[in-house]
Write a structure and sequence with these properties.
The protein is α+β, with helices and mostly antiparallel strands. It has one domain: ph1033 like fold, CATH 3.10.590. It contains six helices and six strands, in the order E-H-H-E-H-E-E-E-H-H-E-H. A six-stranded mixed beta sheet has the order 2-5-4-3-1-6. It is globular. The chain starts with a strand and ends in a 5-residue tail after the last helix.
């Protein structure tokens, strides 16, 4: 299994919407590196859900329920989406400032390539985030 992190502005589409909808197509990604990560996602992979902008915190865990397919929102061919399903909200959201201070997360992509909207996460990083969020899988 692989692990990922996706970012969303909660005013556009937040964790609560995903919980309510149960699943969503993760569309609108228009960055080449992020597209490569979407293409690498496999059904069953776990995904940290990050609220960008004001709250700047990892709030929940989703999973890939459908591997990449054409993004219906794209005006140009070649852009893809995946389907995500909500799994669990973190007991404690993990803020970006907490992540930056945590030993073991110095190379966490949220810190090193913060502008990327879809990024890989190592198993160790995923476990640290769960521990910080007081959440068990």
């Amino acid at each position: 299994m692989n692990y990922w992190l996706v970012k969303s502005d909660p005013e556009t589409y937040g964790w609560l919407e995903l919980v309510k909808d149960k699943k969503t197509e993760w569309t609108g990604v228009r960055n080449y590196a992020a597209r490569l990560h979407l293409r690498a996602m496999k059904k069953g992979d776990l995904v940290l859900f990050y609220h960008s902008q004001k709250s700047q915190s990892i709030i929940g865990i989703a999973k890939v329920s459908k591997e990449f397919f054409d993004d219906s929102t794209a005006s140009e061919p070649g852009w893809i989406a995946v389907e995500l399903t909500s799994v669990k909200q973190l007991a404690n959201p993990v803020t970006l400032s907490e992540v930056k201070k945590m030993k073991g997360l110095e190379k966490f992509p949220l810190v090193t390539i913060s502008r990327l909207s879809v990024m890989p996460v190592t198993a160790v990083e995923f476990d640290i985030i769960l521990s910080m969020g007081k959440t068990k899988m």
